[in-house]
Amino acid sequence: MSNPLASTWIGTPSTSSSTTAPVSGLAGLRSRMSGAAEPPAENRDIEFFKQKDPEHSLEEERARGQAALAALDGCRLHSLEAPPPRPPTILKVGERRVGEAGNLLQLQGQAKSGKSAVVSAILAASIGGTGDCFGLESSNPEKKAVLHFDTEQSRCDHFDLVARAVRQRGGLHELPEHLRSYTLLTIDVKTRRLAIKEEMARAAEIHGGIHLVVIDGVADIALDPNDSEECFAIVAELHALADIHQCVIVLVLHENPNSENGKTRGHLGSQLERKAQTSIVIEKGTDEIVSMHARQARSCHWPKNEAAYFQFDKEQGMHITVADPSNRRTAKKIAEKTSKLQQLAAEVITGPMTPGELEAAIVKKEGVCDKTGRNRIKGMLKANVIERNQNGGYQPVFYDERK
């Protein structure tokens, strides 16, 4: 059975006849699916075409259709006997492949959470850094181009970031030739996309290819991060550039303020979440310790309980790796909770009390429901703030008498 889509989609002009022949191509398929009456043979292609695209001639649209099919044929999978080679890993953490050639990588976090420190570490790792790169590794022995585009920081802050990447994290004294870093503050938004694309082509020619690209502030190459048409085009173009140059493109994007689920800005953020191979999340705790893990990843598993941690060090003037603070944070939370329960017990317990009396005193003091009052008593017992007496009631255990 012949495929109705196999012929030229716009249809083939037919000779006039008293008998109307079935319409071929997409025009006929559309008509048959909708149940609409087919136009006369001599007018059917022209009528359908005018509805579809009145700005181009029929011949131009046919040529465009054939070119599209030719491009599609070049992308077809023809056999399962010759799988494509696995793309090289460009960026990894231990054995985790967080960024492979031909992919986008999203780096997200709240404002001032530590994203720039990670950018510095990625750049340092890509030029063979011997310093603290937070566990990030990126082998680039051929010294292919490493490109960095900053859209957010001032010239001084941009300079400091690159200097830290090269000197403190990279262990180098001078800026290597294959690290090409730009601040785009003075370039208008409409020109930035073209400038990035052209620089990638130029750097690839000069350095024999591109290893990695960082766009710090990808929302600033869009006129409107909430314009779905513009944002989808930007992500598609960047994804294509990563594939053409067989590199990783790291895209830094802010999370929405006070977002509980880590939602990034607008349609741009939503599309990046769908297309990025890995979304690396940067989170700063109340103790100023920053964690780094992957929220979504196709080629690795990097959960939050295995995060990398770093904190700003005043003496070194930059963020440095620190030990996992989870146990310390847990201990601190327990201590804070125990302290609150001790204070509550001191305010409501004056001596031995029955369970009902203690529950009623807590409910009155805190203005909570009975269930919450009972939970407070359970918490006091667990924290060794109170103890049961011989009469089945409760009495306080003084802090200095604890074992």
Structural account:
There is one protein chain. By secondary structure, this protein is α/β, with parallel strands linked by helices. It has three domains: 1-83, no CATH class; 89-324, Rossmann fold, CATH 3.40.50; 328-401, Winged helix-like DNA-binding domain superfamily/Winged helix DNA-binding domain (Arc Repressor Mutant, subunit A). It is built from eleven helices and 14 strands. The chain has helices at residues 25-34, 44-52, 58-73, 115-126, 155-169, 189-207, 228-245, 266-275, 326-348, 355-366, 370-382; strands at residues 89-93, 96-100, 103-109, 136-137, 145-150, 179-183, 210-216, 248-254, 278-284, 290-297, 308-313, 318-321, 386-388, 394-396. The longest helix has 23 residues, at 326-348. The termini are far apart. Mean pLDDT is 86; it is low at 1-21 and 399-403.
What's a concise summary of this model?
39% of the residues lie in helices and 19% in strands.
